[in-house]
Amino acid sequence: CALRVVRGEDVSGGARGLSERRRSRARAQGVRMDATAAPGSMASAGVAEFAATGTFNELERRVLRAMRVAFGEDVVGAAMLTAATKPEFGDYQCNAAMGLAKTLKLKPRDVATKIVEALDVAPICEAPSIAGPGFINLTLAPAFVNSRVVAALGDQDKRLGISRVAKPQKIVVDFSSPNIAKEMHVGHLRSTIIGDSLSRLLEFKGHDVLRLNHVGDWGTQFGMLIVYLREVAPHALDADVGIDLGDLVEFYKKAKARFDEDEAFQDAARREVVALQSGAEETVRGWQLLCAQSRAAFDEVYSALDVRLTERGESFYNPYLSSVITGLQEKGLAVEDGGAQCVFLEGYKNREGKPQPLIVQKSDGGFMYATTDLAAIRYRLGEDHATRVLYVTDVGQAVHFEQVFQVARRAGWLPTDGSVSLEHVPFGLVQGEDGKKFKTRSGDTVRLMDLLEEAVRIARADFEARLTEDGREETSEYIEGVARTVGIGAVKYADLKNNRVSNYRFSYAKMLALTGNTAPYMLYAYARIQGIYRKGDVDVVADAAAGRLTLCLEAPEELILAKTALRLCEVLDDLERELKPNVLCEFMFDLAQRFNQFYENCPVLGAEDSTTRASRLALCELCAQTLKLSFNLLGIKTLERL
Asked: 0.70 exceeded by the pTM?
């Protein structure tokens, strides 16, 4: 393990000698800092009153109320509450006085003073302080922190005290979306991983999430492929024989080359498409077989990534395409231009400076991708009753979705009250270590399954080498489980820890490193904490749930660690709002670093008394469960030992 480990449990640190001070302070405050505190005490009030909203939201509400009390109900201004950037500034900082001072024509510090005089933060925080020109600093009260830790550990739903949203939405997440008759490649990696992570988060928050796989299962390519297979490999269209997807891809390449140079073949392919669209039995049967063969290969990838999806491909919307055109014509949006049906866009100009058209039906009667996307919007809002639709695709499709969303809005298919949102969730490209397009040595696109298996192979080799070095013996099943968890987890974490909209360079060496912000490091951190907790031979979760857990966290490292872990609720709120999983990865890495600082300075198993020992073991378990929940939201499995 590359983590820094403090050997022995009798390490001296800043927390020694705190036990009596803890008890003395608790007696002086008249507060029992445990789960059995009487109703009305700081502990019970802190949990009951703020579990539904979260600490940050509750403090924000109180600041706004204080602003109204201090300056009248008509005061206009935001709470401007943020997490403090440095420990000496407390835990939260309110900057509202700065903006209000200009409006009220007062000095910022005078405004801050009036806000503080009207601000009641008990029992959440200690008395507010004012710093500099008018920054209001808020520090969480130790007793409140203790109560929150107990509540998180005692949560029977294993949600660490994080409540579900009060008003759940029906949310469609459109992600992955490979093409039939083509293998999933590295280009599908980000959409699949990011889409799954966002779906997990939204489901955890309590929303009704529909995970949709908008596969490319319709179009000219199927007529082309079916005609070609009938000529050169008719057995491929036999349900009893079938064909491997890799072979199917090669046939597709040859069919495309033939299509590009043979006019007679082009005509035959187009006739086959017409037959498919009209429901010709033999053609439809061949198309269904091609879809089934591709789906089996896709499912292998989804199984390796532990991703769930409901397939609803382009073909699903075929019956609704004509009504899209009719609806746009009735609104006066779709007009004929050069024989095609077009919607002229607002804010987009062509080279001649004229409004740019979005073609929704070609002159030959064929429909476009935009038409299918418009039909999907109508169905998702009208039949699925979605109030939020997320499209997780690469940033290169941003303009396409802007245009499609504009047409849907102008057609009146979106409510004008803002109750429904369509959101493109763009992401950058996966590049090679040289910063160029990620390809194999031969220049081919990297198959996604090959990429994942290579990560597992490297993880296995590394783990076996360390077992040999340590003189350990493990079963082959255990080694394989570790290799798959670490390998697949490394690929996912390396993607998700990056800002979603940025490109990133794919490197097996970096993502599988045992140091830095990587999945292996974080998985080892989790396993290490669990190992410490197991040696404690206690069950703080059961004690917390039964009201038997007494906590007395007071050392700076204890409080900082507890406060960091309790920030998960706020981090998930940010993630739901920004849809950027990297904020969760950054939180996890920060938590692991805080745990190291805590462990170096606060003896756990060798604590000076049973109360301190139980408190610190409780902190270990809180950190472990916080990491485990975070890993789950990223779609990464954990290991109890490594």
From this structure: yes
